[in-house]
Design brief:
Blueprint: H1 3-15, E1 27-32, E2 35-40, H2 50-64, E3 71-76, H3 95-111, E4 116-120, E5 123-125, H4 127-134, E6 137-140, E7 145-147, H5 158-168, H6 170-179, E8 183-184, H7 185-191, E9 196-197, H8 203-215, H9 219-230, H10 237-250, H11 256-266
Parallel strand pairs: 2-3, 3-4, 4-6, 5-7, 6-9
Antiparallel strand pairs: 1-2, 7-8
Helix pairs in contact: 1-3, 2-3, 4-5, 5-6, 9-10
Length: 276
């Protein structure tokens, strides 16, 4: 492969403007009150190609920046949550564009300040399982399966190799990555990949319940709490406590909502959040 061609392709990809929400083709984006919904919509397997990944990144970045949004919800149409990267995209000429789009989408998941709820009602393989791993909260049904099958193709999943040890611990991460075998929703919950497993007929009610509980809180404080928790990952216990206290003392105290919460407690009334 010509080096100049590769560098040109990569730079060309980086220079492309992100797609606008109204132009999305493979991800449905909608806002309902304080909740932004991003729905994977590539029947039958919701495979992630370059366009779908670009839309996912743009959706998370655009909606996550809106002050009125408190929660991002990622779900999917059909019986498969996400079958991973579309193998047809792995061509010599396009592999760099695909990897760049892949990195941008998952960086958006990791970097957004808003809590992200992932709803998995079907198999989540490869990149699909990584989307679930990066969710702050995950609801699954018994129809869900989680797997990192890349090892069977002669490669390993670089993102999962870094993220899963944090979520599951090294032994379980090694098991999933080295065997490529799928695990059930119930085992995923036991391992810490999933928060709740509910019957398919109860899924809508559970999602409504969780979203209502999260959005009942101050949007600004939700952001601070997420920052304190995730910002302490990888630190020693002592350093993690220092990091959390730094956020609490230096940033939380400046919020109007933190003061409103205390006033409401003293006055024995429900707080009226301004989300700032």
């Amino acid at each position: 492969m010509n080096k100049g061609m590769v560098e040109g392709d990569v730079l060309g990809t980086l220079a492309l403007a992100p797609p606008k929400l109204e132009d999305f083709k493979f991800v449905k984006a909608r806002v309902e009150g304080e909740i932004a919904w991003l729905t994977l919509n590539r029947p039958e397997h919701n495979l992630l190609n370059e366009r779908a990944l670009s839309e996912l990144a743009a959706g998370i970045n655009t909606l996550g920046e809106q002050s009125t949004i408190k929660l991002l919800v990622l779900n999917a149409t059909g019986k498969v949550f996400c079958g991973g990267i579309e193998l047809g995209e792995y061509t010599q000429r396009r592999v760099f564009q695909l990897l760049d789009a892949f990195h941008a989408a998952f960086a958006a998941m990791m970097d957004t300040s808003k809590p992200v709820l992932v709803v998995v009602n079907g198999p989540a393989y490869g990149g699909g399982a990584e989307l679930a791993a990066l969710g702050d909260l995950v609801i699954a049904t018994p129809q869900a399966r989680f797997a990192q099958p890349e090892i069977r193709l002669g490669v390993f999943p670089p993102l999962a190799a870094a993220v899963l040890p944090y979520v599951l611990g090294p032994k379980q991460a090694l098991e999933l990555v080295l065997t490529g075998e799928a695990i059930s929703a119930e085992r995923a919950r036991d391992l810490g990949l999933v928060n709740w497993v509910v019957a398919e007929e109860d899924l809508e009610k559970k999602v409504a319940d969780v979203t209502a509980k999260v959005t009942a809180q101050s949007g600004s404080v939700l952001t601070m709490a997420k920052k304190a928790i995730l910002g302490s990952l990888g630190l020693s216990l002592r350093e993690g406590v220092r990091n959390s206290m730094k956020v609490f003392l230096n940033e939380l105290g400046d919020l109007e909502d933190s003061q409103e919460g205390l006033r409401a407690l003293v006055e024995k009334r429900a707080p009226k959040w301004k989300n700032r």
